[in-house]
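retry 2 of 3: previous attempt timed out while embedding flavin-adenine dinucleotide. Reduced batch size to 1 and resubmitted. Inputs unchanged:
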Amino acid sequence: MDQSTRVKAPLLLLAYLAVVVLPLIISWSVGGPPRPFQQELASGLGMLAFSIILVEFVLSGRFKRVSNGIGMDVTMRFHQVMARAALIFALVHPFLYGATPSGGARPWDPTRQLTLTTDILYLSSGIAAFVLLPSVVLFAVFRKQLDWKYESWRLLHGLGVILVALLLLHHTLYAGRYGSQPIMTWVWLVMTGLAIASLFYVYLLMPFLKKANAWRVSSVVQLSPRQWELTIAPDDGAGLAYSAGQFAWINVGHSPFSLHENPFSISSAPASGDKVSFIIKELGDFTQTIGQIKPGTVVYLDGAYGSLSIDGHTEPGVAMIAGGVGIAPLLGILRQMRLSGDPRPVKIIYGNRSVDQIVHRDELDAEDAHYVLSEPPENWEGAKGLITPALLDDVFSETEIKEWVFVICGPAKMMDVVEDHLISRGAPSRRILTERFDYD
Ligand SMILES: Cc1cc2nc3c(=O)[nH]c(=O)nc-3n(C[C@H](O)[C@H](O)[C@H](O)COP(=O)(O)OP(=O)(O)OC[C@H]3O[C@@H](n4cnc5c(N)ncnc54)[C@H](O)[C@@H]3O)c2cc1C
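retry 2 succeeded.
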């Protein structure tokens, strides 16, 4: 992996905390007439909610320095948890002002240090944000149940958060007690500007730059009844710098500015050349059309993302545990190991429903591979059922569990079972590498 794109988790957390509390610190250092603690808390929570929301823009998973350092699933989980925290702070804060005197503008209190404004023009943006913010969060939490097209949801989510940010900016500057201080006005303007600019960077500038680096489909091969291997090659531009196991967003056959792009793990190895392959399982709108994609179709690629990489891991062996199409990034890692002459032993557990879902069996059979089927045929001699703690203990010795690096990708339930068991058997979490295909 390009080490320059990796920023370590503690550093990121420190940077996050510094940015989120910056407005609070500056506000309180600016000072003002003394007020009861409860009112300071009310203003503090309001400001905290606003700065958390602004930083959410860069926790969208599209900034490699963030998501490649801590992993995409951790980034998205953090994004979700902090959105809920901001929502609670924002909803609670107006009720904490208590019996503060309220009314129109007072000449003796121009910065609203001691009174609450009731000027409807100043309050309207706060009220609108008070209604819109819960809608945006609920719309994200219940995305799957709403059964919207993913792209439509993403567009509306983006527009919703821009609107919330602008409403909160107006509310903070005009109704807030500290926002009217010149330095705070600048702090909020710059932070809001940067947050919104980050969206323009991802959805306008990056696609514009990608136009010069188009890729083309070189082949689409059916691997199993519902899994396809899509291989693309760089058109004229440079190839992709990636580490085996990472993933990329691909946009097949649309304008580079289209929201039709999906994330897929790279199943090829950097050492195999410029072409990049993906194993794609049919699931919804886009993936069900993979079989109809013609060679030569233009593809735009954004990557590489993710932290599922054994680069820098010097453990004596590599354990791979995959469920279904989760084999894709693991194949990338395995291929890179073999192409680069990495002599370490590899053990693979690969779970599927039926035997025809096992892909690239020829390559896997060359390793110590254990196939598990939940719907095995009658003559099946391998493991049956799901990937269980008992199976893990059968395949891996105590020393292997404690000393090897584990790479896991598959359905969320399987990953939870495997991770919990490995940790309970003494595998340190820094040696358990995971990628989740679903953040919800
Ligand atoms: C890091 C990562 C790596 C992945 N690697 C693979 C892989 O190697 N092989 C594979 O088959 N699948 C992979 N997936 C899952 C794959 O992205 C989805 O199956 C695919 O995007 C579904 O698109 P669709 O239009 O067919 O389905 P839809 O019907 O549109 O969506 C079905 C579900 O897929 C997810 N999804 C759809 N579009 C997106 C999107 N643009 N971004 C994020 N999630 C989306 C959503 O959860 C959605 O609810 C990966 C997902 C992630 C997050």
